[in-house]
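Hi V.,

Quick status before I head out on leave. The structure for the redesign project is tokenized and pasted below; the design run finished overnight.
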């Protein structure tokens, strides 16, 4: 269950710490007090959309922390995700929002949005405002039925989605390959030409770079020759060449080298320089001798380079891409040459994939049919408990073409009047009735999924009077096996609280902040009086609140007696 909620510098909340209890936790407050902010903070911690605008004015960052009791199932999930366990057996989810970024952590370790979602689905289920309106969408009905059917439905849907995509890809391939004989011949002719052109070139990796280098040397041969000739004259044996001058220098320093060791060292350096220069001159002379222009070779290199560059420009920009394209068109050519064989094989693959998809969809349909009958019966009984006096609830299933989610159209149908056929929810259900249907669904799925904590934000929308009592009874019964946190404005529901919290907005004239506090027995009575519409806490108003509280306690006692008898 959710042990505590810690919020700091979020919207109107400077800092708030809420310690929840087991059973039914009720949150009430005036309109605009910040109840939505509190629930929003929970959603935020669990990966909801974050914005720097959420940060309280004057603060650098906002923080939300949720602390849950762990369990064997949660511990196993943490181990699968390679996340640490706390020694005290708790799980802490924290999210920090600052300018430009947000960071989520589980037990101190930074986690991804996917990891956060995977774990939070096991910890808590949140029913937000207006969520009951989603029941007007048929696709929601299928999701609910599959959620009730559990892991088997999830696995079959995943397999159906995979097979449907594979079939879709094959059909797309077939459509792309649909050519008449004339088109096929024309394309085959073009592909064969391109293939022969590429094969005839016999391209080698790196050949273009080598050719470019060779061509450049040939084109610039004259310029290179002139430069080398000048270089040789400057460094060679000419009267004023470097070699001659250095030779003179060697003789001059040699005449005095015996006078000092340093001079001998300098002479040695100069001798080495002379030797290096002589080596350079020999190399330069050899290079110039080898530079005879070969017109035939030049024409050959130029022609080959033109072939390579033309193919690069035409088929990909590099030799590697040209060769890859050649392999690709070779495959296409084979397909077209054996077109009928290829198409027949493709048809066989499609038929096989359709058969596999149909088989999986049939399994899914049977599973849904079984669970639809069971779920409809459970929900109908739950709706009677929620003050639907005469009700018939039907889960209608119609066949459709196999798709990624199976071969079933599912719709919830309702009749609240004897003798009238069940109709779609949008045609017969009011907002208050949709709220109660969603409550019944949430209760059933919570039992199925074993989610520890359920949060309801104004599940009481559109109801009052006796129906409100029935909803409060349902929430109270649900809280026997789950922790329930409920934001409400109805006194009948608030009176059923095991723990009652009030949310208030306070201002000092310069700033406003939202605070939350747990109410004592007396504080609960006063809050109930306010919810009953009392302008002031008169003795009469407090008596009415006390009477409401006693009525709730009597309902709890009767419920407890029934539970004992059933057990």
């Amino acid at each position: 269950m959710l042990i505590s909620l810690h919020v700091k510098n979020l919207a109107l909340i400077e800092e708030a710490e809420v310690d929840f209890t087991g059973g039914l936790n009720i949150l009430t407050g005036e309109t605009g007090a910040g109840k939505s902010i509190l629930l929003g903070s929970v959603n935020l911690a669990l990966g909801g959309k974050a914005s720097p605008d959420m940060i309280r004015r004057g603060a650098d960052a906002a923080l939300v922390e949720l602390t849950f009791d762990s369990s064997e199932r949660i511990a196993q999930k943490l181990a699968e995700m390679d996340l640490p366990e706390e020694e005290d057996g708790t799980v802490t989810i924290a999210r920090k929002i600052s300018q430009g970024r947000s960071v989520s952590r589980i037990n101190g370790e930074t986690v991804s949005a996917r990891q956060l979602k995977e774990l939070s689905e096991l910890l808590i289920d949140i029913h937000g405002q207006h969520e009951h309106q989603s029941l007007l969408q048929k696709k929601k009905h299928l999701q609910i039925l599959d959620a009730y059917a559990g892991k088997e439905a999830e696995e079959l849907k995943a397999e159906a989605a995979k097979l449907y995509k594979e079939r879709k890809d094959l059909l797309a391939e077939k459509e792309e390959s649909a050519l008449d004989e004339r088109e096929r011949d024309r394309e085959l002719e073009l592909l064969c030409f391109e293939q022969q052109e590429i094969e005839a070139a016999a391209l080698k990796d790196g050949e273009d770079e080598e050719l470019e280098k060779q061509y450049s040397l040939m084109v610039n041969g004259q310029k290179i020759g002139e430069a080398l000739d000048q270089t040789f004259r400057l460094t060679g044996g000419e009267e004023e060449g470097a070699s001659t001058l250095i030779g003179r220098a060697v003789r001059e320093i040699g005449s005095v080298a015996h006078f000092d060791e340093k001079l001998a060292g300098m002479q040695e350096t100069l001798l080495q320089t002379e030797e290096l220069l002589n080596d350079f001159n020999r190399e330069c002379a050899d290079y110039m001798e080898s530079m005879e222009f070969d017109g035939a070779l030049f024409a050959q290199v130029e022609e080959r380079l033109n072939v390579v560059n033309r193919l690069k420009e035409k088929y990909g920009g590099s030799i590697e891409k040209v060769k890859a394209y050649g392999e690709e068109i070779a495959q296409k050519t084979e397909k077209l040459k054996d077109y009928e064989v290829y198409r027949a094989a493709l048809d066989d693959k499609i038929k096989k994939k359709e058969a596999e998809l149909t088989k999986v969809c049939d399994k899914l349909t049977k599973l849904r049919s079984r669970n639809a009958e069971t779920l409809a019966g459970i929900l109908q009984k739950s709706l009677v408990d929620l003050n639907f006096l005469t009700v018939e609830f039907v889960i209608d299933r119609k066949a459709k073409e196999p798709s990624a989610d199976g071969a079933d159209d599912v719709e919830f149908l309702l009749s609240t009047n004897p003798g009238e056929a069940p109709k779609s929810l949008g045609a017969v259900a009011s907002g208050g009735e949709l709220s109660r249907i969603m409550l019944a669904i949430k209760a059933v799925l919570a039992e199925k999924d074993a989610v520890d904590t359920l949060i309801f934000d104004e599940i009481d929308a559109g109801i009052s009077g006796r129906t409100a009592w029935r909803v409060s009874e349902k929430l109270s019964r649900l809280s026997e096996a789950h922790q329930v946190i409920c934001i409400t404005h109805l006194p009948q529901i608030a009176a059923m609280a095991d723990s009652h919290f009030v949310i208030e907005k306070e201002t000092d004239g310069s700033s406003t902040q939202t605070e939350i506090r747990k109410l004592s027995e007396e504080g609960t009575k006063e809050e109930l009086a306010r919810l009953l519409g009392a302008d002031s806490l008169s003795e009469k108003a407090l008596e009415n609140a006390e009477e409401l509280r006693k009525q709730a306690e009597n309902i709890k006692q009767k419920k407890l007696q029934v539970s004992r008898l059933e057990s």
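Above is the designed sequence. The mean pLDDT is 86.

G. will cover questions while I'm gone.

Best,
W.
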